[in-house]
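Exercise: predict the structure of this protein bound to guanosine-5'-triphosphate.
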Amino acid sequence: MDLQGLDSYQGGPGCDFNEHVLHKTILVGDSGVGKTSLLVQFDQGKFIPGSFSATVGIGFTNKVVTVDGARVKLQIWDTAGQERFRSVTHAYYRDAQALLLLYDITNKSSFDNIRAWLTEIHEYAQRDVVIVLLGNKADVSSERVIRREDGETLAREYGVPFMETSAKTGMNVELAFLAIARELKHRAGQHAKEPSFQIRDYLESQKKRASCCSFV
Ligand SMILES: Nc1nc2c(ncn2[C@@H]2O[C@H](COP(=O)(O)OP(=O)(O)OP(=O)(O)O)[C@@H](O)[C@H]2O)c(=O)[nH]1
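Solution:
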């Protein structure tokens, strides 16, 4: 997707959104899994249907979320999934505090490539980076090739939280970013006296609280 075409896209020099610490979060995963769409859904609450236009390079959007009454500022970087941009995006991993790693539940190779993505992340990112695995396009049930259980099993193997999302319907999109914001806020020690926060426990509790089937 062409980032320049997004009217609310806020990245780039001159952005005055730096009064406090920005928590750097990066969206990664194969080309076409829905990274840009997920960010647009989170930022603007909309889904832009139509032909797929791959992201070129990398760009960011700043977003403030409220966690327990506190403002947490996320700087969300949207990377190009195409192989040819990989060396560029590696350079951004080092400063990342969180990574949302996406695959497409209708695309087996995007799921198979998650192991390679995790290897890259472990090579280039900080050891304590927060990682959440997302199986996107959960709305396209007729074309599903990756079962939810497969995502759960892989996530368990690597010890990362997991959920399915839909950038189209918005399912679990806010939850994914809020969970990261909550974890980063806790790590930043803004409320050091609070009991230890675990992103996985938080997501599990949110899933249990959901009355219906929108959480996985
Ligand atoms: N049905 C459905 N389509 C989606 C969803 N997310 C993304 N898409 C579509 O999938 C295609 C690729 O989405 P993008 O958001 O551009 O994918 P990307 O991961 O940013 O791709 P790169 O920029 O190449 O890395 C587009 O046609 C989107 O409309 C989703 O949750 N559901």
